[in-house]
């Protein structure tokens, strides 16, 4: 092939030969001899073009290039604390629209959709005790905003994540929460701006078109200025979650990971990408469930398997089961498993500690030595042979002191008549937790979360072998320290009031749920 180029607004490309040999014994001629194609400039020479337009055009091309490189690790700036007496939630800054504006949204692994408050909004708070600006998204002020019509296939997809409907040919939604609050609005698509870390640990400014909710009404606790945020950032599994959308565009891997520091200072690491560590173990995700459900087979205390029927941990009529939820502060066991668990712990330490029953029936112990020296190790054993090993600090909570002795209480609770087991921050801390959506599995490893981690740019695709960073075939591994990301925990839409006294512990919670 030869080509002749003319330096004008149109370029002539002359093909002198173009025969394509196809499969089997067939050859197709795709053009005549010769064939001339006219190429035109996207922006004529004599036309002034805004720099922002050129940058946006380049970013689209860069995303296509990144698609061939399995995307990059996405870093969202995150703030907040797990302490319910301070903030009690974690929120990330996202940038939406053209020109981009900042929105601070609460991170929630228990829901799927990103939504932000829009203008006008009925009942939306205009100030926050978190000292963050309460920005409202205005579709008319963004040059790249588009409403999602009822005929759009993404509107049908939205029905998996919310009560969806159609209002004035706009795809609408309604979310309800366990504390009685809620929000409603309509879906839009617009550019999300973020930083990606690609090969060579280079940080690139990127953008992608995503669908999110534009909230026009809020009720209940969402209307309060106390700890108010601009919206909710769902980290669930549906096609409308930001993880799924970025992954389908090749912008980011189809996995995310966190490592939560269990010390008083808190903090940790959150990346959209898969942290790789030699000692990782994996168990399959249960499919067709709205949450991150896994199969818990048994519990061992001090090496002895408890006599609990495995069906206690199973899903029955879409209820029960075991959920990994970093949005839950404590952890919960099905009612038929909690008592055998507590009894085994108590029996193991009966000669070393003084048991104490609080007014709220929480099992507590008075001890005069280190809990690590007194209390037994615990293992939660999952499908595929993966075990999660718990130290005493992973199932106990320290309370007030009595006469110089420490009071520690069982941190596992139960939810009446639900038959559900929830692994919350109490057990997830000081561990790498990987949500490998592409591989349909969840993995973990004990880890010092104040240390750096290695992150793969690609999912393992469900392979079960343990690999070291840099040895994942076809992937790129990066090293990220907790100081390169703002220290975080992931917290779902949960508010806890924790009133801890020596013999009286009271917990209330409002967990985000979804009504379909």
Describe the structure.
The protein is globular. It folds into 3 domains: 58 residues, no CATH class; 181 residues, Acid Proteases (Cathepsin D, subunit A, domain 1), CATH 2.40.70; 169 residues, Acid Proteases (Cathepsin D, subunit A, domain 1, Beta Barrel), CATH 2.40.70. It contains 6 helices and 39 strands. The strands form 10 sheets. It has a 6-stranded mixed beta barrel. The protein is mainly β.
Short description:
The protein contains six helices and 39 strands.
CATH class of the largest domain: Mainly Beta
Approximate helicity band:
10-25%
Number of separate structural domains: 3
Strand content: 35-45%
Low-confidence sequence ranges: 1-41, 61-70, 459-478, 481-516
Gap between N and C termini: 58 Å
**Going across the major beta sheet, what is the strand order?**
7-8-15-9-14-13
CATH homologous superfamily heading of the largest domain: Acid Proteases
The whole-angstrom Rg is: 26 Å
Oligomer: single chain
Protein name: Peptidase A1 domain-containing protein
Keywords: Aspartyl protease, Glycoprotein, Hydrolase, Protease
GO molecular function: aspartic-type endopeptidase activity
InterPro entries: Aspartic_peptidase_A1, Pepsin-like_plant, PEPTIDASE_A1, Peptidase_aspartic_dom_sf, TAXi_C, TAXi_N
